[in-house]
Design a protein that fits this description.
The two termini are about 20 Å apart. Strand 4, helix 5 and strand 5 form a beta-alpha-beta unit. This protein is of the alpha/beta class and about 525 residues long. The protein has a 10-stranded mixed β-sheet with strand order 8-17-16-15-14-13-12-9-10-11, sandwiched between helices. The protein has a 7-stranded parallel β-sheet with strand order 3-2-1-4-5-6-7, with helices on one face. The chain folds into 2 domains: about 220 residues, 3-Layer(aba) Sandwich (Rossmann fold), CATH 3.40.50; about 290 residues, UDP-N-acetylmuramoyl-L-alanine:D-glutamate ligase, CATH 3.40.1190.20. The chain contains 20 helices and 17 strands. The radius of gyration is 26 Å and the shape is elongated. Bound molecules: ligand NAX and potassium ion. Potassium ion binds next to strand 4 and strand 5. Ligand NAX binds next to helix 1, helix 2 and helix 3.
């Protein structure tokens, strides 16, 4: 995956530091890399804004070094520039010192009063090297910038944002534009970070792509580049059975949920979809569904009937959860149905009630997972199913920045995948898809409109539909989440879950034109 989608790779600040070092070893000069970084930011500023009075805040590390380059470039183009420095010049890196010496304007010491005459702020205080909470004058300055409402261009990250987790380390600013270098970082895509970066630009500063080979990277931003080659396009000579047969369990009361799942599975191309429902609700399903077949599960023997249905090995992918039911006896039934599905060893998606039903004894669920499985919890379901993860050593023994912010969504999803043996899709505006082997993808195309009732049920349908067509769970989850986001963007305001499956053909056709013609 690394080779086919190198541009989608995400590097933590630490990995970025290693890439930077490897580039220098490969013959790039650190001075030139910094010059290119600063120039890229200055160019972006001059493209976006007309000539303004600029305050460049330069911090004690290489982020500050970039600040000197930016200040000098803007000055040379006739912009009024104030340079506000915080640090000790003689302990800065050689390249930062060299660029600081090249600065031809006046030096000032960082102070909130400098904001009085500023029209635009360049935030080059802290970047990848942030290692403890921001205090003192830098803290006061960032707070004053935030309160001033002035437009901010952040260098690499808004200072105070942890590039690894997307969490804020005490204080930060809301940037209108963030220019980062070489590759994005997870913190640019994970909330709240994503909301603080404004427009995010990635500048090529001359780091050779070959440095990535040494790094064993495991995190990507979701994009068809990652999985389009494995996408199961229907073959002209194909038969509907080649496109799989998905089985969706439907509960007794909330019948809409599993119908949305079934429709999602149909739309994404499953050859056949059967909705299996308890007899009490059977008539509702049978009346409402046309292309989807409905199977009856007789009273008091629902699990046995479900098991029998699955004896037919053409039923190659199963979804349990949407509308499955949690009240009283339904909870027991939902558990049995989920375990029956897992026992087949066939590709299974567990969502909603199928996750919550195991909140008291999640290990029973994890022990039953021994085939391809995708779990799609939202935050609430995740907390119920993985209560220990926030207290796990991998979260708490990391440096202080992470210790103070256990809400590292990427790490949590990875730990959950490892613990359960399933691909975990931790849903939200920044959905993370993590596999038990450590690979992870952060999704970034979901619009706010997708946060609506039934939207997750459709996603489950997209996943099970792709599984039925033979896609591997990690790829199927990534592709489904991306399609779901694209459909959401396509519909926009006024979106309801019912629209999602029916807008998919348009998105699929654009995707097909782009990648397969
Ligand atoms: N490929 C790369 O990695 C490149 C990186 N560049 C820049 O270099 C930056 C990284 O440079 P550094 O590693 O020097 O990191 P920073 O510039 O973020 O700052 C590190 C310095 O700040 C101090 N510090 C950390 N947290 C602090 C706190 N809370 N309060 C006070 N001081 C604190 C550290 O002790 C260290 O002296 C990137 O963000 C980017 O802007 C560019 O110059 C070009 C190439
Ligand atoms: K910064």
């Amino acid at each position: 995956m690394a080779q086919i989608a190198s541009t989608q790779l995400l590097l933590t600040p630490n990995e970025m530091g290693m890439a930077d070092k490897a580039a220098v070893v490969a013959g790039e000069s650190a001075f030139t890399l910094m010059a290119s970084a600063g120039k890229a930011v200055a160019d972006a500023i001059m493209t976006r804004w007309s000539k303004h009075s600029v305050l460049v805040m330069a911090g004690p590390g290489n982020n500050g070094g970039d600040g000197f380059v930016i200040a000098q470039a803007l000055l040379q183009h006739g912009w009024p520039v104030t340079l506000a420095f915080m640090g000790q010049i003689d302990v800065m890196s050689e390249e930062a010192q060299a660029h600081a010496k090249a600065w031809q304007g006046e030096w000032q010491t960082l102070s909130p009063t400098q904001l009085e005459n500023a029209e635009l702020v360049v935030d080059a205080l802290f970047g990848a090297g942030l290692s403890r909470p921001i205090e003192g004058v830098a803290h006061d300055m960032l707070e004053a910038v935030a309160q001033s409402g002035l437009p901010v261009c952040a260098v690499d990250v808004p200072s105070g944002l942890d590039g690894e987790t997307g969490q804020v380390f005490g204080v930060t600013v809301n940037a209108e534009l963030t220019v980062t270098f070489f590759r994005k970082k997870p913190g640019h895509l994970l909330f709240p970070g994503r909301g603080l970066c404004g427009e995010l630009m990635v500048a090529d500063i001359g780091i050779p792509v070959t440095v990535l080979d040494e790094l064993n990277l495991q995190t990507w931003e979701n994009n068809p580049e990652l999985w389009y080659q494995k996408y199961p396009w229907p073959r002209l000579d194909g038969h509907k059975f080649h496109r799989g047969h998905a089985v969706v369990y439907g509960g007794e009361t909330m019948t809409g949920a599993s119908r949305l799942t079934a429709r999602g599975a149909m739309r994404i191309g499953a050859g056949l979809v059967t909705l299996a429902a308890p007899i009490k609700a059977w008539a509702v399903y049978a009346t409402a569904l046309t292309g989807v077949m409905v199977a009856k599960l007789e009273q008091s023997q629902e699990t046995e009937d479900f098991e029998e249905l699955l004896l037919d090995s053409r039923h190659n992918a199963i979804a349990v959860g949407p509308g499955a039911g949690l009240a009283g006896f339904e909870r027991i039934r939902t558990r049995k149905i989920a375990l029956t599905a897992l026992l087949t060893g066939r590709a299974t998606v567990l969502d909603a009630d199928a996750l919550s039903a195991f909140s008291e004894d999640p290990q029973i669920l994890f022990d039953a997972i021994n085939g391809p499985c995708v779990m799609t919890p939202h935050e609430g379901e995740f907390m119920r199913l993985f209560p220990d993860i926030n207290n796990s050593p991998e979260i708490n023994n990391t440096p202080e920045i992470k210790k103070n912010h256990p809400d590292n969504k990427l790490t949590r999803a990875r730990l959950a995948a490892k613990q359960s043996g399933a691909v975990v899709v931790l849903k939200g505006a920044d959905t993370v898809i993590a596999a038990p082997d450590g690979l992870a993808i952060i999704n970034s195309n979901a619009p706010a409109e997708l946060a609506t009732g039934g939207s997750g049920d459709v996603l489950t349908g997209f996943i099970v539909g792709l599984l039925a067509q033979g896609m591997e769970p990690f790829d199927a989850a990534a592709a489904a989440v991306w399609m779901h986001g694209e459909v959401g963007n396509d519909i926009g305001a006024g979106l309801i879950a019912e629209d999602l499956p029916d807008h998919l053909p348009k998105v699929l056709s654009t995707f097909k034109t782009q990648y397969f013609s």
